[in-house]
Description:
Blueprint: H1 20-23, E1 27-30, E2 33-36, H2 60-88, E3 92-100, E4 106-115, H3 117-121, H4 125-133, H5 136-146, H6 149-162
Antiparallel strand pairs: 1-2, 3-4
Amino acid sequence: xxxxxxxxxxxxxxxxxxxxxxxxxxxxxxxxxxxxxxxxxxxxxxxxxxxxxxxxxxxxxxxxxxxxxxxxxxxxxxxxxxxxxxxxxxxxxxxxxxxxxxxxxxxxxxxxxxxxxxxxxxxxxxxxxxxxxxxxxxxxxxxxxxxxxxxxxxxxxxxxxxxxx
Length: 165
């Protein structure tokens, strides 16, 4: 999660790091091809970069999208294996987040899921070792640690509100 609303600018992204999902926005894999969503706001920008160069070859922007789609596609099987492992061990739990900002706005984030910390800590040795050997244990703790960024994002949003941005 990089922001609280789609229309708001991301809070944790700078020019040095663009998440793969943001890089590929409006582009999708369709079989062996790349498809676009022509209604996506990305294609409405008057100052957009061309997808192809003068010779009809993919331009820099399209090559970045191609790399992002390739990496996301490659990681799909690993992500699915991770989710299956968490489901089998009953380590996924729903989470709702309620935030109140300095301008008085309250925001409810519902329909989210995280790793069940208590259940993770109560795993038997064999299951914990299995998660460790598959690298899923590290991913589970990374997901839990990411929750600590939500209050930081709210703080950044409050600073932007105070600056009138």
